[in-house]
Specification:
The chain is α+β, with helices and mostly antiparallel strands. The protein has six domains: 21-126, no CATH class; 139-332, no CATH class; 334-362 and 655-863, no CATH class; 363-474 and 484-545, no CATH class; 548-653, no CATH class; 869-952. Helix 2 runs antiparallel to helix 5 and helix 8 (206-233) packs antiparallel against helix 9 (247-277).
């Protein structure tokens, strides 16, 4: 009875797990289909099933073969020894004694099947991508310098060979040892002497010998393959000076690996002969010989060669291999095409040079992200449930000119709701989306020290035509971690309006329809009965899953690595852009990136996610990347060509800061391409450092608009400076180089390195920070502010290469220590050579330093409904023609006003929940616009008619 209940409980548990698995699989299929990426569901799914079947079959064969091979030994051991000598428990002895070979065979098959299925269920889903890569390789067009094999062999094929070898060789050794131990304890093997090469040292039963001979033969065959694969693994060697195969590896290890591979083939023949002739020494002598040979040839001899020959002549012998390491590491990190130029660094900044660089000076991003985020949070969050997660700097065109804009989305933070408000209805049906963005100029302060907003408030207001937002809602972002259901009987919370709130209903492209069956599957998957019982859900309701944008893209394409997303405005909509990387850890001679698992990386993909409906597009931006080409073969249609991305969106692609940081860290050593210089580290660099809390920290790369040397127009670049390496406690005092990543137009992805002469003395950022601290005027002023109850916040130090020299610019913020205060930009520090000034504005600082007056006020034309200058009538030919032209343009103006009225009606109909409020607002707005239009029209018409009368008379 107890056994029956146990089987029932186990059966129910297995059934429950099966139903849960099916529901999860079904919902995943619906989700992939909803986004239009069915191939990303089916191809991995089928590949994983095939891999699981293959792994399970192999495991079944091994487990069954092992158990069948010792079946007779076990029966003999139980029947003859345990029953007679150990006298086990009475009830246990008789059934075992009566157990037949047929029953044991059935049990072995059942146990092998269950064990192989359980193990393959855990491990069978791994390795599917390696297999697909193996059968779809793309040539790199570059061969390794030792074996002359295309790099695709190491990236796509060698990993699978190595995986298969490791998969079989380890279990085979374990299986052989287990069988030998069983034979030993059952008396089939008797050891008379540890001198295995002597005759009669080991006595083995003939059936056991034949069984072990076959196993050892297979082991020899596998080990021969293993030694062959190890010859290619030498290209990743870390034993000597060179990362990769060095002199000792090529002349010490490589020949003997080939020899050992041949010896293992000889051992294979010996094991076969042992099977045929039943001679145990044909089995033991090859084992002993290969063990001794591998010890001498792979450990003792290479160590002697390295210490006696290589180290005394290291540079001479290792030079060609150092060249390999330098060349392949630079290629792996995209540094082989860096454009290198000399930069003087000490050119005097005369007035005429500064005037030429006026546009660069005017666009320096003086607003610091950290204080700015506090300002946004206190001035523009407009509710505890909104949060600004990060600030994104980008370039936008206003009136045909580029400006640096700080932009941050106003995301919904459900966790900030009060505990009593965190109900199922609120978190799943009502609070579903954030609203809009806040944007301000990055290079302009205001008189009160706050950023000049160009997009703000809820609903969004902006005075610039380029920043009109048609769809401000954010259903998919960085903080949207939970699923929600839209189009329910409840109106979603859109934004607050006074003491009330405005409702909204989602009408995007994506979302899984909640049919009764889908709803049941979703309830099972989520384990939420409330979901199935909710009366608010109807046939038109949809669920939005995986709304966190990083989670979303990683689930779709898990074989890419992703960077932090950033948001951009794209023709009235909000779009997230995420940089996707292809990586590999098996490129020969390339240094592994510290604390990461790759030694090759390319920013080959840009992922675009619509913040409103979550549609995802993958764009291939590096057609020359072989790894991406392989993925495109495996998953056709997933990666779109860059040409299909809108031109407007292409204008906002950025060189990723994470990749740039990696390249900078590699370049500080691998800019030395001469093996001798590289060996002695004669010109090693460090990333320039700053002072933070009296400690040195690396500067982070920063985006800015500047005119590069030799270029005509300013462009959006990513910049980082270098200093010489220092062995002392303090960072170096001089600048050595600076690196920029370009990203505008056809220059996207280019790296320019500007190197200063070694004898040029240009102070490093660390020294500039120290000089600021030591300046008595500045330090006294900062101390006075702090004594008066203000917190002084020193922003990030900006290094601006300018006309052959450098300017260093640092914003100073003041923040009251009272609760609720916000940082205000009050001063600008500017350093040039040995001079440092602190003024209210950048223009004042430049005047004090160079006696040149600047006015960086932008020539901006906000969107002004009262201005009709675009419709100004040109000089007439005669009065009648001019009057007719005026009447035509008046008609055009009426049509535009009518269109504007229609847009206002549409906007307000979506914004206002109450019909009465909507009508009153519309009427007031239309009356105001008509009144303004009539006044302006009368003024212009009267002026033009009087002018025409004067002309005619």
């Amino acid at each position: 009875m107890k056994k029956t209940w146990l089987f029932v409980i186990v059966g129910i548990l297995l059934l429950g797990l099966a139903i849960y698995g099916i529901s999860t699989l079904y919902m995943d299929w619906l989700w992939y289909s909803d986004l239009g990426y069915e191939i990303l569901f089916w191809k991995p799914f089928i590949s994983k099933i095939i891999m699981q079947l293959v792994n399970g079959s192999i495991l079944f064969i091994f487990i069954a073969a092992f158990l069948f091979s010792i079946r007779h030994a076990i029966l003999n051991f139980v029947n003859e020894r345990l029953r007679k000598r150990l006298r086990l428990v009475h009830d246990l002895d008789r059934p075992l004694y009566q157990l037949s070979q047929r029953n044991i065979s059935i049990y072995i098959v059942l146990f092998s099947a269950l064990a192989s299925f359980a193990i393959s269920l855990i491990t069978g889903f791994s390795g599917w991508l390696e297999v697909l890569n193996f059968f779809n390789p793309t040539s790199f067009g570059i061969v390794d310098p030792i074996f002359q094999k295309d790099l695709s062999f190491y990236v796509f094929q060698l990993p699978l060979f190595q995986t298969l070898f490791n998969t079989f060789f380890g279990p085979m050794i374990l299986l052989t040892i287990l069988i030998a131990v069983v034979y030993f304890f059952t008396g089939f093997i008797r050891i008379h002497s540890l001198c295995f090469w002597r005759k009669n040292a080991i006595e083995i039963n003939s059936s056991a010998l034949r069984h072990l001979s076959l196993l050892v033969a297979f082991l020899f065959l596998l080990r021969s393959l293993g030694y062959y694969l190890e010859t290619y693994q030498l290209l990743y060697s870390q034993k000597g000076l060179v990362l990769g195969a060095g002199y000792g590896d090529i002349h010490g290890a490589l020949p003997f690996l080939k020899l050992l591979s041949i010896l293992c083939l000889g051992g294979f023949l010996g094991a076969i002969l042992s099977f045929l002739k039943k001679n145990v020494r044909l089995l033991t002598i090859p084992l002993l010989l290969i063990f001794l040979s591998s010890t001498v040839f792979l450990y003792i001899w290479p160590a002697l060669l390295q210490s006696l020959i290589v180290i005394p002549n290291e540079l001479e012998l290792e030079t060609p291999y150092l060249e390999n390491q330098i060349h392949f590491t630079r290629f792996a990190y995209g540094l082989d095409k860096v454009h290198v130029e000399d930069y003087p660094g000490d050119t005097p900044l005369a007035a005429e040079l500064l005037i030429e660089e006026q546009e660069t000076l005017a666009k320096i991003p003086i607003q610091d992200p950290s204080p700015l985020l506090q300002v946004y949070g206190q001035r523009q969050s407009l509710g505890q449930y909104y949060k600004f997660e990060d600030i994104y700097l980008d370039r936008y065109e206003i009136n045909g000119k580029k400006h640096l804009i700080n932009l941050t989305p106003r995301e919904l933070n459900v966790n900030a709701l009060e505990s009593s408000a965190k109900t199922f209805v609120n978190t799943r049906f009502k609070y579903t989306h954030g609203f809009g963005v806040v944007a301000s100029f990055a290079h302009l302060p205001t008189s009160d020290g706050l950023p000049p907003f160009i997009m703000k408030d809820v609903p969004i207001t902006s005075n610039y035509e380029e920043f009109q937002l048609l769809q401000p809602r954010i259903y998919f972002g960085k903080l949207t971690n939970d699923w929600v259901i839209v189009n329910t009987d409840l109106r979603e919370f859109d934004y607050p309006m006074g003491s009330k709130s405005v409702g909204y209903s989602y009408n995007g492209k994506t979302g899984i329809s909640l049919t009764p069956f889908n709803r049941l599957m979703l309830t099972i998957q989520q384990g939420t009965p409330r979901l199935y019982l909710a009366k608010e859900i109807h046939s038109q309701s949809r669920i939005l899953l995986y709304r966190n944008i990083l989670e979303r893209v990683e689930k779709l394409v898990p074989f890419l690595q992703y960077d932090e997303p950033y948001v951009v405005l794209d023709q009235g909509r909000l779009k997230w852009i995420i940089d996707g990387y292809t990586t590999s850890g098996t490129l020969p001679y390339s240094n592994m990136y510290p604390n990461r698992d790759f030694n090759y990386i390319r920013n080959s993909v840009k992922v675009v996610v619509d913040a409103y409906d979550g549609t995802v597009d993958y764009f291939a931006i590096d057609s020359g990347d072989p790894i991406l080409s392989t993925y495109e073969r495996i998953f056709p249609g997933v990666f779109k060509p860059l040409e299909e991305m809108s031109v407007h969106l292409q204008a906002h692609l950025r060189y990723p800061k994470s990749l740039f940081t990696m390249q900078s860290k590699i370049l500080k050593t691998f800019h030395m391409t001469d093996p001798g210089v590289f060996y002695n580290k004669e010109d090693s660099w460090e990333i320039a450092q700053k002072v933070l809390n009296n400690e040195a920290q690396n500067l982070e790369p920063f985006y800015t608009l500047m005119r590069l040397p030799g270029q005509e127009e300013p462009e959006f670049v990513l910049l980082i400076p270098f200093t010489p390496s220092s062995s002392g406690a303090n960072p170096p005092s001089n600048m050595r180089a600076w690196l920029v990543g370009r990203m505008d137009g056809d220059h996207y992805g280019e790296l320019n390195l500007y190197i200063l002469p070694k004898n040029t003395q240009v102070k490093s950022p660390w020294q500039i920070e120290l000089r600021i601290d030591q300046d008595s005027t500045i330090s006294d002023q900062l101390a006075i502010w702090e004594e008066r109850g203000s917190r002084v916040i020193r922003g990030n130090l900006r290094i601006l290469p300018l006309a052959g020299n450098f300017l260093f610019i640092e914003p100073i913020y003041l923040q009251s220590l009272k609760d609720g205060s916000i940082p205000e930009l009050r001063k600008i520090l500017v350093a040039y050579e040995n001079k440092i000034v602190m003024t209210n504005t950048l223009e004042e600082a430049l005047y004090e330093l160079f006696k040149v007056e600047f006015d960086f006020s932008p020539d901006l034309k906000p969107l002004d409904l009262n201005s009709l200058s675009d419709f100004e009538v040109k000089d007439p030919v005669n009065g009648e023609a001019n009057l007719q032209m005026l009447l035509n343009q008046i008609a055009q103006l009426k049509e535009m006003i009518q269109q504007l009225e229609e847009q206002i009606v549409n906007i307000y109909s979506e914004m206002l929940e109450s019909q009465q409020v909507r009508e009153e607002e519309l009427e007031r707005e239309i009356e105001r616009l008509e009144l303004e239009f009539e006044q302006e029209l009368q003024r212009k018409s009267k002026g033009k008619i009087e002018e025409e009368i004067d002309i005619q008379y």
